[in-house]
Design brief:
The chain has 190 residues and is an alpha/beta fold. The chain contains six helices and seven strands. The chain is globular.
Length: 190
């Protein structure tokens, strides 16, 4: 069984796919803790609803000190992978080094294209650029922004009628699928 920690600041849409895969037995994993830097985030609401272990850690500006607080919580568990699901903070080297090659981020584009952007801004840029395909990227977290080793990419067509909202919906579906695939592969490769 793979032990997961999830860091999230937003709605945690990808958490739904992961949680459902675990509950249905399609994924041999356990969510040990969900941490959010936003007290009223959707990801914390989902954690409460599903009775998953969760905690809100109030934001502070100093990234190193904040990540040390996260590390203190994570050390209570035997975490195999940390998943960043809508985590709107840049990790400090202290957390990256503590979970080297065990921290995964999802980005809503086919990296390296549109690196550094977030959420709807990325989809808007994809549409403006006239891209014919987009998707998501699961990558290892390193000290750069969206520069870590790419683990998996999933693609979808950009249709002429697509909007930011329709593109976001298509990509988020792929993100959940990608996380599940990467977690399964982690199990078989480690």
């Amino acid at each position: 069984m793979i032990h997961l920690a999830i860091l999230g600041s937003t709605n945690g849409t990808d958490l739904i796919a992961i949680h459902n895969a675990i509950k249905s037995g399609k994924l041999s994993a356990q969510i040990d803790i969900i941490i959010s830097n936003k007290k009223n985030s959707g990801i914390l609401q989902k954690a409460k609803e599903w009775n998953l272990n969760h905690i809100y850690i109030k934001q502070i500006k100093n990234r190193k000190e904040y990540d040390e607080k996260i590390l203190k919580k994570l050390k209570k568990y035997n975490i195999d992978l940390i998943l960043l699901i809508g985590w709107m903070r840049i990790l400090s080297p202290v957390l990256i080094k503590a979970y080297k090659n065990k921290t995964l981020n999802v980005h809503p584009s086919l990296l390296p294209k549109f690196a550094g952007g977030m959420n709807n801004d990325v989809h808007a840029k994809i549409l403006k650029a006239g891209e014919t395909e987009t998707g998501c990227t699961i990558h290892l977290v390193d000290e750069g922004i969206d520069t870590g080793k790419i683990i998996l990419q999933k693609k979808t067509k950009v249709e002429p009628q697509d909007t930011v909202e329709t593109l976001k919906e298509k990509v988020q579906k792929l993100e959940g699928e990608a996380f599940i695939e990467v977690i399964k592969n982690y199990k078989t490769n480690n």
